[in-house]
User: Fold these one by one.
Assistant:
Number 1:
Amino acid sequence: MSQPQPNDLSRSLTALDQDGTLIAVIEMSQSSWLVAGTVPGIERQPLKKLAPDEAALFRLLQRWQDEAARSGRTMARVTVAFEAGRDGFWLARWLRSRGIEAHVIHSTSVAISREHRRAKTDRLDTAMLMRVFLGWLRGERGHCRMVAVPTIEEEDARRPNREHESLVGERTRIINRMKSTLARLGIRGFKPELRKAPQHVEGLRTPEDTPIPPNTLDEFRRDLARLAMVREQIGAVEQARLGRLQEAPATDPHAMMRLLASIIGIGIETADMLVQEILCRNLRDRRAVARYAGLTGSPDESGSRRREKGLAKAGNARVRRGLIQLAWRFLMFQKDSALARWFRARTAGPEGARKTTMIVALARKLLIALWRMVMTGEIPEGVVLRQAA
């Protein structure tokens, strides 16, 4: 029998003493929290609606502890769980700092009824959360999975990359909107992304040899100003990241980034995304790595029916998108690597697999190879590194 992994979040590794454990679950919303409890020594199942207030929650847990103590039970363990959502992880960190065992349930890991019109209320949701949380505490697999609660420093370290992604998307939207505006006027070939574009706007003419209409021109000027501001913010994020990397090059995340960026074809932006979003996580094996990125399959088997429904897409979408883009780039810059040769062998000839299908398999293999590289220092076979400056 295999030993459970120390970071296995699919079940609790602590034996449950139900007579000495206060168990609570929270159904959280923007306007209120509904707290359900299982209190030893009390037959009723307490249910309390609170305003979103952590101090009131703490007082409620203490009151339930006092009720259990009056019935002759000693609470050696207080454990609380709630679903991952808009509120993030701050409440779990706050509760843990006060000696309460707090867990965050992965929302998609909770099985729900498949009835066409099922009843759904906060009361029913708390009852469902209590059932799956009790099963998890007993150490049984399949009830639910917990999310690893990051520290506030780990959450903050992901912000630059995510902000950069958002700003790049905003830059693309502004440019596309400006090009669409010009196309409606019959003007083609103008590139608003160029830095000298504002100097040439006044000279633009429609096919009828008329200038851009005044309202459209004013909108165009505002879009150009917005584009300049977004471009400036992108540069500020990139410079701040490089500054932090130079200040502390030997820390674990920065050392991983420098190692990945030493591979020809991988830049600082991609390395930062991979390290902060997945490689810094304490994932137990290569299957967990691929599963977190959503690059595993989703088979559909029933009786004699066997089919594959494609990628599960249940993991981190940022990692998945970035890896598929990286896989195409890897084929360009690392043509002699073992992974690139494997891809070409699988897609060569009329009987070869489709490249768009096999690129996902290459992305999965590449992710596992990079994970092994940062964990053990093993360089993927045939990969060319940049020469040290």
Number 2:
Amino acid sequence: MSRQEIERRYAAVRDAMDEHGVDAVVVCGSEYTGFEGAVTYLSGFVIVHRYAYVLLPREGDPSIVFPAEARYVGEHGAAWIDDQVFAERPGEWLAGRLAGKRVGVYGLDYVLTVRDFAVLGDKADLVPFDLEFDLARAVKSDEELESVRDSVRINTEGFHAFAAEYAPGKSAAEVLAPAEELFVAAGCGRLTMNIVLVGAEFAIARSETVLGDFCIPSLEIAGPGGHWVEVSRALGTPNADVGRMLEAYEEYFEAAKSALRPGATAHDAHRAVSKGFTDRGYHLGHVTGHSIGMTMIEHPKIGEGIDTELREKMVFSMHPHVIAENGHDCLYMQDTWLVTADGGEPLAGLPMKIY
């Protein structure tokens, strides 16, 4: 990671501090919740176990704080923050630094541990900062986009490995295994979340799950640079209702190329890409799309009433989850899109079709 990129990230978060009137930001990450990417984004530290916090003050150097038992359960040498603190009670250490201040917390609702909240919340004025932090990191740098494209390449190769192994009657586990082997060998480590849809529901790819004539994989990985992406296509023989869903998917794919443009709102993009589904009377069972980065799901989402303006170099995962009236037949195919000056660019280069 270049020093220029590190300072760019800090400057963007500090601009958000100024805009929202907070004195410091605490970014929480935990291996237990799937939100560890925010800590990596601000520190370079990769959480292998336990949890950590990054303290970024409005002025001065940042700190990264670990519970004392985490001294040997993470890649400390990868962190670019010099001030690495190991505290018996991280909340007490943070409270000593932040008493009387207004502090934005990324992860206040889902990640900050109860024991640390109890003491820190008693000393400082804590305010949620998830949306503000995510918007500060939503526009990717050229350096980040190299990592994004590398993740897309790996994910796409994994899809082809899945497709090559798929056949009706095989278990989900044996079909996914070659893709997972490829992902780990390419440097993803444990940053993979690869599942299948059984009917309209997401399911772990277990050996007892037998795949039929139609298969919907959901493939999501982060490559060595730590940027998550999502790329997949359905496989096999769809029934007539799913065939109609594919027509709407083809319309979404074309609409997104113009809808994901600078100056449009996330609401506008949602309406444009979902039109083919709603016109056919289908329900969407999952968010149409969302910003994606070093945390899998970030703000803004592509959805109804979201007035966030899209900007060039934002990256979105798009995956309309369309469900038939019977609640079982569905279609769910993923792409990672880049907002460019000329509109949306699907990064995987896969045709929109059922393989």
Number 3:
Amino acid sequence: MTTSTFGEGTLPKGVRSRMIHGVNGLDVHILEAGFETPGRPLALLLHGFPDLAYGWRHLIPILADAGYHVVAPDQRGFGRTTGWDGSYDAQLGPFSFLNLTRDALGLVSALGYRRTAMLVGHDLGSPVASYCALARPDVFPSVVLMSAPFPGTPAFPFNTAQGEASPAQPNNGNQKLAAALAALDPPRKHYQQYLSTREANSDLSHPAQGLHALLRAFFYLKSADWPGNKPHPLQAPTPMELAQLPTYYVMELGKTMSQTVAPFHPSAAEVLACQWLTEPELDVYAAEYGRTGFQGALQAYRVFTDPDLNAELRLFSGKTIDVPSLFIGGKSDWANYVSPGALELMKTKATTRMSGIELIDGAGHWIQQEQPARLAALLLAFMKDVSRADHKGA
């Protein structure tokens, strides 16, 4: 285990960067705080796209001050974690949700813990955290999902033995949706479809406006700072309903993501006013993605959009998340509704002990950066409730 310099002086006091070697085939880069006192309960924070462990920097010290050993890893495919193949033609099995779950389990074990006290997953980290709680509730006895509702596991057809055998249905839902979106006026495409293409990495890594400007516009557009974010539930996963989403989710057909966000770049005054992501902090993101490119981070989207690669998840067909759970979103975040019906399914079918759905005012997609104090208050209140329930049941 080695300590490395990271963050160009932007890490909050008490937060350190180090490498943990030999975790499920990876050398994992983590940010952590609260490590000075042995025996503290573990809080594990899993980031999404295009984020890094660094995205938790404002939250980590608050949770450490509350008594936790807080650990945020760069997930497989991201940042300074190594041991993954970042080429488009790489085998995608290592980026499956169950292997990302094994990454989390292996990290907990490498750190010398039998269980987490707090598990939080944001964006693409949310399904990983969900499968952690599904597969190993003994190690992950509570879970907080952020910004990406978990609609449940892929299920096997139920009670079909008595009926006539139905022909196997082709897994072409994504192709059908792509064709229907392309038929709209103007023609559109889903962002997951774009992020799964061979061209996406090059488009994102070498944008005409430069990487720093692309990231600034992307973070701004998906935050509460952009006045255009006025999200609301969609009625159904139909092309007409999905077309209500901003173009960073349902893009114009002929445009790349860099072209999509370029016209919305914030003004110099808005950049200066952005205290949750200063220019030196954004430089950290630009330096990391400038070094690694985006393909490692994009592999999970290719898994996500490929039914064959998700077949193993049917091992959990019909299984629910039965540990205490909480969902937290930003009031200005469309991600809560980008999959129509997912919030309701999460609350009514995918979980059995969800304490609530909390939407934070003044936050878009980047809750842990935009409103870390409000987020910390919700997390700590939830953990207090979990602890109280555990004592009652003991």
Number 4:
Amino acid sequence: MRQDLEIADIVRRFGTEYIEKHHPSAEKIKIRFDILQCRTLTLGGHEERCDCCNQVRYSYNSCGNRHCPKCLSAKQAIWIEKLIDQTLPVKHYHIIFTVPHELNPICLFDKGMYYKLLFSAVWRTLHSFGYTHYGVESGAVCVLHSWGQNLSLHPHIHCIVPAAGYSLKGGWKRIGTYDNYLYPVHQLSATFKGKFLDSLKRALRKKEIGPEFGFLTQQAWNKPWVVFCEPSLAKSGHVIRYLGQYTHRVAISNDRILRMSKTHVTFIAKDYRDRAQKKPVTMTGVEFLHRFCLHILPKRFVKIRRFGIYNHTTKRNMELQFKQKESIIEEGGHGGKKETSQEQIKRLTGFDIGLCPKCKKGRMLFVRELPRIRSPCRPLRQLIHTLLQ
């Protein structure tokens, strides 16, 4: 039987034991602290009252941390709509670049360096293929993911690439003729492998730690690399919405957590070795938090990046113009007034946050603000221990 659980419940139960065993950094402790406080009275909020049935509702503020599973759904819907407005009205291909697990120790040694080189190798590969195969400046929107279904470390990048580019002659040109694929995947895999390992070895030598990881890079070189590319059979909006499922996500969502005992946590994961069947996975609570921490990104690291003709600087320098959709406006007696944030969320998600949850007729009106609870000024580590006890 599934329990109504959240990641915050797991942090609350196993957080102290995890800190004592793994001694995480202050940044990781702060993220767990944010998850504990998210949408609680600690962060403040506001009181609302229905103008029809007088039902009272208290809405608490979100922590806004990008690793919190509660804070991303509305941002995801808005991002998808904005991206659709800023892309070319052509087919888009979904390409996934992965790296062998033998390189995971290097990733754990310096995530910022590793992910930066991964983005660079992905784009340099796509960029070179755009010129060599079609003679165009291509583009891509790339999203970093670092996890597998069982929360293991599995860095990979999802890309959407348009079936068009800006040619050397100064005009738009459609691309993608390889049996419904954008580029030959075997050539793509070999080129990506060479570019990423070359840049990784250079970075390690610059840090004077090349020999320590030389055996791992050689192991990775001896393995076949696979770049996965799906044939584009849908309109650009469909592909972008599909990619949108991967953008504003954390390693695991609350609805995948099934049970929590005094020592273990059970969650649902897809087994891709068995036709993507959903199966329960059980591990200790401390191990669960440890794996969750593997996917915390370095501070200020950008996980969604645009390249080529989709990069704002490139578009400006090349003076490229995309046909933009007009801003959404509200019609019918409001004089062309732009929609509010509540109206935008309702249109994109179908959820009306201003509707009374009890009578389903009235509107929730603001009554008063609930102030944020100010915690005493103590070291964050000591504060976390106090909250978890």
